[in-house]
């Protein structure tokens, strides 16, 4: 149950952000349809109007492709900014449970992301029925898909915000998760190819088939930043939908269980610091190793890259994970 008083408080704190976000999300879809219509009308004034055709095509994306940016901003304001400013303590001291606070923040922000896009989708559908374009391509799939994808991005940022103690940590953690399948699969595979001088795809055909199936892209959240998913089957949207549920659960549990007194630290849960530091060093070692080999095409370059990566990884992890950020 979301308390009305808490809901009102959260709304007033970010009122202008919510209003501006809603206006943009409502207007983006109808604007694209109308812009195509205006372009068509302008074409009719050309010397060869017979070549003009009023088409609404979302196959290659549109302005809506950036709706996920709004999700990121809202999530940062709801959690990351509050932790960075040190106002989360005051919020937690109010007579509300942590569960109520997280649920209020999460679903208020989620509603601001989903409802305006749904309204914009309806308005664009009405505009299409009135203007009657000769062809409409991927309108429904893209419009619904962007609602799902922007909500997934929002859930991811809320989860990372519940795990971390300031804005930079929230954004960096979220970005790392968006490319995590590549870091866990791609980097080790590339290093194996360098060390043992063989092709992973040739030696292990199931890996090659997995990559060629493009599933590797779509289980990687950053894959939805690009527009390749539009040309896939509609069921592809089940993947970001499931991710949204997973991110929501991670965020909810983290907000309930992790100590708020570590605000300003990279992670609110101290036990995450050492494993994450080791992962950062490992990724840096593998990444710089492959880069060194790619530049020099020698094992010396590979080993030099490993050493440089270890040093850089250590300092990056130390100054990000272990350093406390002061409140704004």
From TrEMBL:
Highest taxon of source: Bacteria
Transmembrane portions of the chain: 16-34, 63-81, 106-130, 142-164, 171-190, 235-255, 276-294, 300-321
A family per Pfam: ABC2_membrane_4
InterPro entries noted in UniProt: ABC-5_transporter (IPR053046), ABC_transptr_acetoin_YtrC/YtrD (IPR023264)
UniProtKB keywords: Membrane, Transmembrane, Transmembrane helix
Keyword Transmembrane: yes
UniProt name for this protein: ABC transporter, permease component
Organism of derivation: Bacillus amyloliquefaciens (strain ATCC 23350 / DSM 7 / BCRC 11601 / CCUG 28519 / NBRC 15535 / NRRL B-14393 / F)
